[in-house]
Amino acid sequence: MKFSLNITSIIVILALTPFALNAEETVESKEDKWKSNIEFGFVATSGNTKTTSINSGFSVSYEVELWKHSVDIKTIFGSAENSTTSEVETNAERYFVEGKTDYKYSEHSYAFVMANYEDDRFSDNDYQTALSAGRGFVIDMSDTSKLDLEVGVGYRKTLKKETLLLAEESISETIFRLAANYSWDITENSKFEQKLSSDIGDDNTVTKSYTGLSANFAKNLALKLSLTATHQSDVRGDTEELDTVTAVTVVYNF
Predict the structure, then answer these.
(1) Structural domain total, the chain
(2) What is the DSSP secondary structure assignment for residue 16, as one 8-state letter?
(3) pLDDT tens across 144-198, in order?
(4) What is the largest CA-CA distance in the chain?
(5) Domain of 14?
(6) How far is CA 139 from CA 21, 50, 70, 109, 136, in A?
């Protein structure tokens, strides 16, 4: 897909140039607000099959007046015993980091800039990184639920691994970003989240889905069930296009 200069310019202008707002639409100043959490999940099996799986994450956000800054870090590690050699071999290793800054024009409109980096040892990518900017719109679905819609443009670089049959390849491309984030506070102690995003480029389209359901069992502790799916349209060799991770984690909010 080729993106015209006109379309790119329009989106960037909408993202980075504030609209003229009425006084009642302007976001009022708020006190500084920190939010952070750590999550950890561990699964081990023994007997006929010996496997270990560890997934962890750390998220932090800081909100002050019209600005919101956030960082999200996730890791996955898995190992299993080889039935032939009886040696323990790593079968999953992934690291993901994402940073984002929002500037609020009003209660229902904001601009964003975000960057992410992903390193998956068992994909055909040595690494993949992207930078994008655009506009976001907040829709209040009810008193306890809301939907964020985002559109933007950016740049992505992917380094393909060298294999016995394929040479190392570096791919740089412009991307068009679409995203939707839905959250619903089911009760005071439970929450549902659904996040969808698609970064569309000339060579590769990366689509991600995250579904999470959490419930507090103590003041700052929650149990979360989540399903994360990542689909890449351009993979090489016998690499699968779709990766999924189902996790049960304990989340500590502070």
Answers:
(1) 1
(2) H
(3) 999 999 999 999 999 999 888 888 999 999 999 999 999 999 999 999 999 999 9
(4) 71
(5) 5-19+28-253
(6) 18, 47, 21, 9, 10
